[in-house]
Each structure stands twice: as structure tokens, then as C-alpha cells.
Amino acid sequence: MAPIIKVENISKTYEGGFHALKDVNLDIEEGEILALLGPNGAGKTTLISIICGLVNLSEGRILVGGHDTVSDYRKARELIGLVPQEIALEPFQTVYNGLRFTRGLFGKRPDPEFLENVLRRLSLWDKKDAMTRELSGGMKRRVLIAKALCHSPKILFLDEPTAGVDVELRKDMWEVVSQLKKEGVTIILTTHYIEEAEAIADRVGIINKGEILLVEPTRSLMRRMGHRELRIELTEPLAEIPAALAGYDLEFGADKQTLVYAYEANGERTGITSLITDIKNAGLTLRDIETKQSSLEEIFVGLVKEQA
Ligand SMILES: Nc1ncnc2c1ncn2[C@@H]1O[C@H](COP(=O)(O)OP(=O)(O)OP(=O)(O)O)[C@@H](O)[C@H]1O
Question: Mind listing the pLDDT tens digit for each residue in 213-268?
Fold first, then answer.
């Protein structure tokens, strides 16, 4: 199946000569959740804004649902809902009217039942007559999502949807996102919260200094680049690591009773079996064993450092 979004050789130079994006290529499949990760200033918002037609591209071409975002702007834009990073709402407009108005702007027929549905799923129904200026920051974010959904887009962009929101709202947002995915909506989100990408994204794209470093299924990225640690707790503390175990590069954990062994999860031989045998042969007794997988955060920091 053709990707729902095709980004081909996009470059962006802002006035003043800053190269915010450099030859970016990206295919986004229909129905997936793609998380774009990158440090501040990496170019995530620029990329999203170009796909949504809010910022002009300098070079390249983007197709959304087969429509060129420049020559066929309207058709491309119709398919997209955007939740911007900055809260931009009419302060004296009621929540409900804001949605109605936005839906109208997209040339959609009024549909009170549909709007009620959107408001209910974001727990905003009881706030429908409130003016947006009366709402808390978290509520305003919910309104932004509702507005982005009110013309039934097939693609939803969320630019840092959970920046600065509390844990409960973040969970609610994840819930809404996974529900939308079930309905077949393609979701692209940018985030600084790596655990967010790890928890909900099918694929992760890492972007740094205007370049896409990689785009990979979240799971395989974790598997391919993840390091693991084996933490071995002994029954007695040691004075030092026994010479017989010198070949394993062991380190002490929080105390001298815990040995930490780092290994590559995808390596052919992890060395765990022989380590355990050698520990036993050294006369030591195990109390407990625990493994720890490195997080996407550690992978990300490693990659970005490599590029620096
Ligand atoms: N209108 C503009 N004119 C000039 N430079 C700009 C403009 N907009 C963004 N930039 C620069 O382009 C770079 C990429 O910005 P962008 O907002 O796309 O990054 P980002 O990855 O979304 O960052 P953040 O995580 O901080 O939101 C930054 O260095 C920024 O200063």
C-alpha cells in the first residue's frame, strides 16, 4: 500500500540562511503511530509545519494521500488535523463554537452529534459553553485536540501534546491516541518524553540538526540497540571482585553485594551461562538475579552524541 504521507528530499532554509531541514525523506504508513524524537531545535516542528502547509518548503515534494501539499494544498490539508505546540485559542469563544467554526472552515456540514462525540471523548462536554479563557492549561490542550479532530481528519499531528501536562491528562491523551489508532487514524507526534514514544509509537523517527538519523519500528530499535544489564545479588558482600571473574568486566552495583554485568542483548553469545558457572566455581552464592534493558532515552542520547 502506498504510504499516506510521502516526504521526498525536503530541505528548508529559513530567511536568514538557517538550514532547518536537510534532504529529509520519510514515508508514513496509513494507520501507524510515528513518534518524532529529537532535541530542541532539531527541526521537528518545521517538518510538521511543512507537511501541514504552514511553512513553505525550500526544496523537495510532499504527498499527503497522494495530493501534493503545494499544488493540491486544499485536498492535502483536508486530510490533516494538527494539534499545535503553542496554545492558540480565541479567548472569548465558547468551546463548542470554536469547534463548530473550525469544522465549517474545512467546508464540512454541521454535525452536532459528531461534535458532541468529540467533546465527550476528551471529557470536555460539560465545558462546552465555557469560554476558552476560563479553562485551565490542561483543558485548553484538550480543546486543541478537539479542534484538530472536528473535521474527521485521517491524519493527526500532535506537536508535543503532553509537554507540561499532568500525569493524568497525559494518560488520557494516550488513551485518546490509541482509540484513534483503532479507528484507523494515522498519528504523528513529536515528543521529548521518550517513555511516551516507547509506550505508544509503532515506529520512532530520530531527528537531529535537521536530518533524520533513523526511522525504525520501536520494538526492533529497542532490540537492536538496547544494551542489557544483568544484576546479580550475592548472599554476602565482597571485598573486591574475584580475580577468577576478571574477564567479565564486572562492576559493583549500589553495594558490594551486587555485581553488574553489561551485555548486548542481540549478541550471539551473551556470556551469561559461563558467568553464572564461574561465579559458582568462585564459591559465591546467588541470592537474586535481575536484568535491565536500556531505555529508548539511552539509545537516543547515544545516537545524537555519535552524530555530534
Ligand atoms: N521562522 C524561523 N526563522 C528562522 N529560524 C527558525 C524559524 N523557525 C524555526 N527556526 C529554527 O529552526 C530550527 C528548528 O526549529 P524547530 O522548531 O523545527 O525545532 P524542534 O525540533 O521542533 O524544536 P523543539 O523541540 O524545541 O520544539 C531551530 O534552530 C529554530 O531556531
Answer: 889 998 887 766 667 889 999 999 999 999 999 988 899 988 999 999 988 766 66
Q: Report yes or no for ipTM above 0.85.
A: yes
Ligand 1 centroid – CA 272 distance (Å): 46
* Residue owning the nearest CA to atom 17 of ligand 1: 45
Domains along the chain?
A: 5-223 (3.40.50.300), 227-293 (3.30.70.1560)
HEC states along the chain? CCCCEEEEEEEEECCCCCEEEEEEEEEECCCCEEEEECCCCCCHHHHHHHHCCCCCCCEEEEEECCEECCCCHHHHHHCEEEECCCCCCCCCCEHHHHHHHHHHHCCCCCCHHHHHHHHHHCCCHHHCCCEHHHCCHHHHHHHHHHHHHCCCCCEEEEECCCCCCCHHHHHHHHHHHHHHHHCCCEEEEEECCHHHHHHHCCEEEEEECCEEEEEEEHHHHHHHHCEEEEEEEECCCCCCCCHHHHHHCCEECCCCCEEEEEEECCCCCCCHHHHHHHHHHCCCCEEEEEEEECCHHHHHHHHHHHHC
The residue whose CA has the least distance to atom 1 of ligand 1 is 14
Question: Which protein residue's CA is at the shortest distance from atom 30 of ligand 1?
Answer: 41
